[in-house]
Amino acid sequence: MSCQSPIVVALDYPTMTQSIEMAKQLDPKQCRVKVGKELFTTSGPVILDELHKLGFEVFLDLKFHDIPNTVANAVDVAARAGVWMVNVHASGGRRMMEASANALQQRMDNKTLLIAVTVLTSMDQSDLREVGIDVTPEQHVKRLAALAKSSGMDGVVCSAQESSMLSTELGKDFVLVTPGIRPKGAAQGDQKRIMTPAEAMSAGSHYLVMGRPITQSPDPIATLTEVNRTLGVHV
Ligand SMILES: O=C(O)c1cc(=O)[nH]c(=O)n1[C@@H]1O[C@H](COP(=O)(O)O)[C@@H](O)[C@H]1O
Which PANTHER family match (predicted)? Predict the structure, then answer.
């Protein structure tokens, strides 16, 4: 049975052993999992096989950003590894995203979703200003998401605060993946543009990425089950 929940648990761990221990407690019907830079750097691609063997759909979050040829080839390798979703940075530009989309289109029966990161959820207006972007996060997300869509991306990573606007602007089928999800009372940490799981879903998010609120909870499974319950997902 495939996953019933929009939750993607970020397995941000410094060792493969810790990430597998957590994954073994989770249920592939209750969540998908995400492998990011920390875990992939320590474990390499074998972690993808291990998580697939446990029955999980895997989001490979390496946020590729490089010249078009390099990124297209990296995305192709990720798809070959059978990941459910892979991401690039929208700020890499149209040619980089089009080359990546073409690489996946050329694969027979491609099933990997290709998503572009817009403005990181850890950034606010003052962070953008410092890197030379003089518009609001919402305006910049809108511009990058429109570029991502017209460059052949299946969707974007944004904050749930932009989900409603993007859903209206770009249509309900354009996939919105939203980190910066914090249940009421959870520590915000380094995230700036946050929302609760229920608010994010009503705003139009398709998938909710959650790391620390689940992985650092005293009872991760109870927390995940409770978040699913608030979203009406009963597994
Ligand atoms: O692409 C991502 O997944 C991502 C994009 C973004 O804008 N913000 C963001 O937090 N993420 C990732 O989502 C996860 C959020 O983790 P927590 O803040 O612990 O819930 C981390 O693994 C981040 O790398």
Answer: OROTIDINE 5'-PHOSPHATE DECARBOXYLASE (PTHR32119)
Question: How many Å apart are CA 11 and CA 53, to the nearest integer?
Answer: 16
Identify the domain containing residue 204 by its residue range.
7-230
- DSSP states of 40-70: HHHHTTHHHHHHHHTT--EEEEEEE-S-HHH
221's enclosing H/E stretch is helix 220-230
Note the pLDDT tens digit of each residue in 3-16. Answer: 989 999 999 999 99
Determine how many CB atoms are found less than 10 A away from the CB of residue 68.
Answer: 18
pTM equals 0.98
Domain count, the chain: 1
Pocket test for ligand 1, best of 209, 216, 217 (most atoms within 8 A of CB): 209
Residue 35 located in a structural domain = yes
Q: Report the CATH number at residue 33.
A: 3.20.20.70
Pairing between β-strand 113-117 and β-strand 7-10 as defined by DSSP bridges: unpaired
Residue 87 CA: which ligand 1 atom is closest? 1
